[in-house]
């Protein structure tokens, strides 16, 4: 456990409470958590201090559209953004809002989003993010539940409001302004800024959730400040410290805590944040123009990058694809008679697995082969951080090798202010894990007897519990739900983890996602989905069973390139949709699932007996996944009920 230190011993079960394992924290915090920065008491102070230290640095940038074409990025400095945020803050106060009021922000990431957020931070107004993928019903729920008094939205959404609707709104004393109109509302007024404490709430961030209404997570100034300090220490300890010259691409929703805290960290260092144009099809072009140094992503985005690279390599002809694959994964022993060839062709992946640093493992391969991949990401990316959901291990390994950048897997929840664990650079043994804790929290496992997870076993497994200032202050207006998950200062995440020998954490299951088959066997379905997700021929899988059936079935999103390649090799014709209907294709995928099941020594009842191949990825449009790509199991069941019934009838 070299990457963590033990700070409290575990204890046996007592008084109706399950046993808990030892409490650990990051080895980078062995001498204590990062000390507070003098004068840094609120999120607004992060911005204010950056303006004082880096007034002329580029802060927020967007691509200028000229004659319908996107040009270079144009920038506003920290000083210029401060001036705009001051004006917006005064205008908000002129509408009667004050400290503790609620302000909604509804739209895609853009400079105005951050400017409005900083205006709210300055005046102690709760920022309440909203986003389209929640659905109209959820947006209405949040507006009412949070009692939002003012809302900022994209210009294009205002254009959708009809004159009749504007007239109807005016009956209720609601006013609609353009951004420029609102900027000048309080030109002759200057409002004093209230005193802000670390314990004050700065944002109510609603989680999409897989069932029920969204929950309003109360996040304090202390939570964000503490996380920024912890991540900053982590980066310094692994020699990847942020500098004012760093550049970040903002495209993950600011309505999620992941992107929000990353941007706070960039502002803390006076670095630059460039915004995408809001179209996923144009994201790679935006990245190429901005040339970011740090890139955050969710697995779905990295899946697309992986698939795109695979397709590009396959279309490059025999010589190019062979050279790429040799550089990536060929293992060639080095002998005296072939020393030169051995040095060139002993693959980068092989050397990294043996402990070589990514920038030293294969300099020639990097320059001749992999530099093209790096150029595709702008040419300057040195760290790629994946979060929000597990990243497939084969994709993580692949990207660590070919991007010439550190690819790190992180874990965190809105309730823990995003960052709780992150894997470390040049540690290939951490692939498939989320790494050790960040150096500002304590972590322990709590046993879950009904799932046979023992936090005190030789291989410690249990529910991940987190303690520290990053933990949220509670669910807004839901003390009942708060008491369920915040117990004696520990936040119970609901995720099942397993400590690895080096002190990194592996997410293996979800506490609530357990059901019983008709013969009485308990199935930990997320654990199975993680195992079956190792199959490179599939992009996503939903495993289903219930107490009336004796076996499991699954709906699978096959990998298009993999399925088409298999079909071509086996003389099977048809487009992707037709292949998904082909019985032989289903047999192939089922065989691949069974193969990994045997490798991982799954029990007989844990094997999939029938599959449906779904060519359309699980998406938010059909309400099958959350905005952070978690599966909505009740909705999946409702959507595929007919197919499930048919699979069970056919398989019996």
UniProtKB/TrEMBL annotation:
The catalytic activity, as recorded, is: (E)-4-coumarate + ATP + CoA = (E)-4-coumaroyl-CoA + AMP + diphosphate; a long-chain fatty acid + ATP + CoA = a long-chain fatty acyl-CoA + AMP + diphosphate; (E)-4-coumarate + ATP + H(+) = (E)-4-coumaroyl-AMP + diphosphate; (E)-4-coumaroyl-AMP + CoA = (E)-4-coumaroyl-CoA + AMP + H(+)
Q: Does the keyword Transmembrane helix apply?
A: no
Q: Which domain of life is it from?
A: Eukaryota
A GO molecular function term, named singly, is: ATP binding
Q: What SUPFAM superfamilies does the record tag this protein with?
A: Acetyl-CoA synthetase-like
AMP-dependent synthetase/ligase domain segment(s) = 52-476
| Any Gene Ontology CC annotation | endoplasmic reticulum
Task: List, alphabetically, the PANTHER family matched.
Answer: LONG-CHAIN-FATTY-ACID--COA LIGASE
**Per its record, how is this protein called by name?**
Long-chain-fatty-acid--CoA ligase
What's the source species for this entry? Oryza punctata
């Amino acid at each position: 456990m070299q990457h963590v230190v033990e700070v409290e011993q575990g204890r046996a079960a007592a008084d109706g409470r399950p046993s808990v394992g030892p409490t650990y924290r990051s080895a980078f915090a062995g001498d204590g958590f990062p000390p507070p920065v003098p004068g840094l008491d609120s999120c607004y102070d992060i911005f204010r201090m950056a303006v004082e230290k880096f007034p002329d640095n580029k802060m927020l940038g967007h691509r200028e559209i000229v004659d319908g074409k996107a040009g270079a990025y144009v920038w506003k400095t920290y000083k210029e953004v401060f001036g705009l945020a001051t004006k917006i803050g005064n205008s908000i106060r002129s509408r009667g809002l004050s400290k503790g009021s609620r302000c909604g922000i509804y739209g895609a990431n853009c400079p105005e989003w951050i400017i409005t957020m900083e205006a709210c931070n300055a005046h102690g107004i709760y920022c309440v993010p909203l986003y389209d993928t929640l659905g109209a019903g959820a947006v209405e729920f949040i507006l009412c539940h949070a009692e939002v008094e003012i809302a900022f939205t994209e210009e294009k959404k205002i254009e959708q409001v009809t004159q009749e609707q504007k007239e109807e709104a005016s009956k209720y004393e609601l006013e609609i302004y353009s951004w420029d109109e609102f900027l000048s509302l309080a030109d002759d007024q200057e409002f004093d800024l209230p005193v802000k404490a670390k314990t004050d709430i700065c944002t109510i961030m609603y989680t999409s959730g897989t069932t029920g209404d969204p929950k309003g997570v109360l996040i304090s100034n202390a939570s964000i400040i503490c996380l920024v300090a912890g991540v900053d220490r982590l980066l310094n300890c692994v020699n990847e410290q942020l500098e004012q010259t760093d550049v970040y691409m903002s495209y993950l929703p600011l309505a999620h805590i992941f992107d929000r805290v990353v941007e706070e960290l960039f502002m803390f260092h006076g670095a630059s944040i460039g915004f995408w144009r809001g179209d996923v099809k144009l994201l790679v072009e935006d990245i190429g123009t901005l040339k970011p140094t740090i890139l955050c992503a969710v697995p779905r985005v990295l899946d697309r990058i992986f698939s795109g690279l695979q397709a590009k390599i396959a279309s490059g002809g025999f010589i190019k694809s062979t050279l790429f694959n040799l550089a990536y994964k060929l293992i060639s022993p080095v002998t005296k008679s072939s020393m030169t060839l051995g040095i060139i062709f002993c693959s980068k992946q092989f050397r990294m697995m043996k402990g070589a640093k990514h920038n030293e493992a294969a300099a020639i391969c990097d320059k001749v082969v992999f530099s093209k991949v790096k150029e595709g990401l702008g040419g300057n990316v040195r760290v790629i951080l994946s979060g929000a959901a597990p990243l497939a291990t084969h994709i993580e390994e692949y990207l660590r090798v070919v991007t010439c950048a550190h690819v790190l897997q992180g874990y965190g929840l809105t309730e823990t202010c995003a960052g709780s664990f992150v894997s470390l650079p040049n540690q290939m043994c951490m692939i498939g894990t989320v790494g050790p804790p960040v150096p500002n929290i304590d972590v322990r496992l709590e046993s879950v007897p009904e799932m046979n997870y023992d936090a005190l076993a030789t291989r410690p497994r249990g529910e991940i519990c987190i303690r520290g200032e990053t933990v949220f202050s509670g669910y807004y207006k839901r003390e009942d739900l708060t008491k369920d998950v915040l117990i004696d200062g520990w936040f119970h995440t609901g995720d099942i983890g397993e400590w690895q020998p080096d002190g990194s954490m592996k997410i293996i299951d979800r506490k609530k996602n357990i059901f019983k088959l008709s013969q009485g066997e308990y199935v930990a379905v997320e654990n199975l989905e993680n195992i079956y997700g190792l199959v490179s021929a599939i992009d996503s899988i939903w495993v289903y069973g219930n107490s009336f059936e004796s076996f499991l079935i699954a709906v699978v999103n096959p990998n298009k390139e993999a399925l088409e390649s298999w079909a071509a090799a086996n003389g099977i014709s048809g487009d992707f949709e037709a292949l998904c209907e082909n019985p032989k294709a289903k047999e192939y995928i089922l065989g691949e699932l069974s193969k990994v099941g045997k490798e991982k020594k799954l029990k007989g009842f844990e094997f999939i007996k029938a599959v449906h191949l779904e060519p359309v990825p699980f998406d938010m449009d059909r309400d099958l996944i959350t905005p952070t790509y978690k599966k909505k199991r009740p909705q999946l069941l409702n959507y595929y009920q007919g197919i499930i019934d048919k699979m069970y009838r056919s398989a019996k």
